[in-house]
Each structure stands twice: as structure tokens, then as C-alpha cells.
Amino acid sequence: MSLVTLQDKEGHSMKVLSSNGHLFHSVALPISYDEHLENVSDLEVRHDDVLFCAYPKSGTHWLWEVTNMVMNGRAEYSKDRNDVGMLDFIHRDNIDGLSSPRILNTHFRPCHLPEQVVDKKPKVILVVRHPKDIAVSYYNMVTGKKDAANNTVDKLKPQDSYEGKWKHFLDMFLEGKVPYGSWFDYIESWDTIMRENPDLPVHIVKFEDMKKDPAEQVKKLASFLGSDIGPQTCEEIADACSFHKLKKACHGTKDMLCAISWKAGGGLFRKGKVGEWKNWFDDAQNDQFDRVYNKKLSQLSYLNRYQM
Predict the structure, then answer these.
(1) End-to-end Cα, the chain, rounded Å
(2) What was the pLDDT predicted at 36?
(3) What is the SS3 assignment for 83-98?
(4) What is the distance of C-alpha 265 from the center of its chain?
(5) What is the mean pLDDT of residues 93-111?
(6) How do residues 67-93 score in pLDDT, each as one tens digit?
(7) Are 70 and 153 a contacting pair, CB within 8 Å?
(8) Which residues lie closer than 8 Å to 154 by C-beta, 6 or more apart?
(9) CATH for 2-296 (3.90.550.10, 3.90.1150.10, 3.30.360.10, 3.40.50.300)
(10) DSSP-assigned letter for residue 104
């Protein structure tokens, strides 16, 4: 494990953790990140675990709250933050101490999940979003952070905030030089594990479908999880988890991801819109993105390709 600096064409940078070629957010842990990854790999998986997986900025916090409500059978906001079961930076002892059923939340690729996932086959929820909207949201997140001056790893002061321009961040995103690496590789890795393990129960939730018909998507999620909540409760959950209500509830009732300090106007919840990328991409950037997308993801089997 090492702390590395990712730099754009103008010299603006952000520091991330690197382990065996994979990039992660710079976080403070009492152990090395390599050891943490080994602990996650060895984690005991329970039969009723729900694995909640998403690349950053795919709608993680929104869909986690929906999932939590479905599993509890009522439209009531969780008193916990969504990182309570976050495999990425919660110590294994704390994960082991969670009561069942657990929602194990992560941005990890399949290769960093507990090894028992393939054999024990817990239910997996995979959240996906249009990658151009992800890129825009990611840029606003990393530029909205304050430097994590008190967040130390091996006595260093990592910061994954970023001061560069959008056009240079987009280049870094397309090259996978961001925390958690390439979105394209992330999607391809999930497509591969689903192809190689067709009996692994994976429910795919598209951000855009949730925006279009949230009650119907809540109903489908409830069916996948074996919940017996009725149509009325599905409607109530969809309403409670509408973007503006959830944003207000999370900021008013709990300190979401207290380890992050934000600049004025920053935060995990921004606009939550579909198609916001059209206000950011120029024609050349759009063509550049499409070329990378078509080159890297032309052979997907289990995950439907987004229409660029």
C-alpha cells in the first residue's frame, strides 16, 4: 500500500491510496490498507447478508436508504449513516459485530469482496448510472471537498480534493486516475463475475429508472429481497426517498460521512438529475467519451450498455 499523487495536465493533483495497482480514497485506518483488504477478503459472509455495490456517485446514498427502508418494512429514515456497514473503511471487527440482516455497502470491485460471496451467494444489489453523469458528479464532489488535514495514514496527510478544471478531470476519469479507478473496468468486472457465476443473485438498479418510476423500482427491489411490503408502503418509501426530501432528512438528522469536510455549497447530495452531463460536455469531450466507452465496453454480456 502506498500514497500516490494523481496529477492532471496543469499540475493539479489529488492523493489516493494505491494497492496492487488499484486506487482507493485516502482514509485513516489503524492498520495498513493492504491488511484491511485482506481482512475484507476473509470476512465471514452470512446467508442473509445483502451486498450493496456501486461505483462512486452512482446514487449510493439514495439507494442505500431505499434498501434500508425496504428491509425494515417502513418508510422511516435510518438513524445510522450509510457507512455503518461500509466494507471500504470499517474495521472487520465492527462489521462482524453488526446484527443480521446486514447491508454491506461498498464501492469495491468484485475482486476485493469477501471470497465467500461466490460460494455463499448472498443477495447483491448493483447500482448503475449513466457514466457521463457520474463523471460530472464525481468532479463536483472532489472539487467540493476541503483538504483532509487531520486524516492521516502512516503519518502522512492525504487529500483527495482537487482544484483542477473540468476538462482535465475528465481526462483523468477516462484514464481511471481517480479513487476506485476506471468506471469502465468496474462495469466490466461486474459483467465478468455475473457471466462466470450466473447463479449469483444480482439485482441491477438503474439510477435513471429510479428517477422515472421510483415506486415501481422499490416494488422490484422488495420482491428481490423477499420483503412482503405492499404497494402503499412502496409508494411511501419512494416519496420519502425523493431527492429533495432525502437530502433534507440526511442533513437534518444525521451527520453523513462525518470524516469529509466540505466547502461552502459542497456535499454528497448535489442535484440528483438525469442528463446533467449535457450542460458540461462539449462536442469534442462527448466524442472522446464515446470512443473510450465503445472501445472498452463493446462486449458486455449481463449489463446493458448505455446509449451514449
Answers:
(1) 36
(2) 95
(3) HHHECCCCCHHHHHCC
(4) 21
(5) 95
(6) 999 999 999 987 766 567 899 989 899
(7) no
(8) 3, 32
(9) 3.40.50.300
(10) E
